[in-house]
Amino acid sequence: MTPSNKDDLFSKLVKEHQKRIFRLCLGYLNDEQDANDLLQEILLAIWLNLDQFRGDSAISTWIYRISVNTALMHKRKKSRHHEKHDSFDEVTSGIHSEANSDQSELMKALRNCISGLAEQERVIITLSLEGFSYEEIAGITGITVTNTGAKLNRIKQKLTVCMKEKYPDEF
Description:
Rna Polymerase Sigma Factor, Chain: A, Arc Repressor Mutant, subunit A, mainly alpha
């Protein structure tokens, strides 16, 4: 890949995927500044490894695989320093930005419920909320398509139970 082609491809990929990657970063970190730092770390990893993309999967799958792995490594490094980065408060905020106050309260409750999920479950539901297919989620997380579907069903059940506890009149 020539330097010019790499620059063009990288610019295109950043335009297409930056917002989704940022929301993924917010899923791991509670602070917008920290999420921006993680985003830059992920973009650097993509840039450094772009020449090594073999085309075995869709480039978006490859990008989100790097994103998830970089986010997990970042979170582990931070947790070694005893910092808390488990909140999921803002991940779905861009999904329903025009929600009215009742829907906004429901979204806040949903984000709260999602933050209580295990790490892999948060990744899976975040990718699902972002519109990724089972195949794409499987490729990004490294689990099978069948397991992705099963896990998503269990996650949805957990979220339904949590939401019923928080909003018994709504469910």
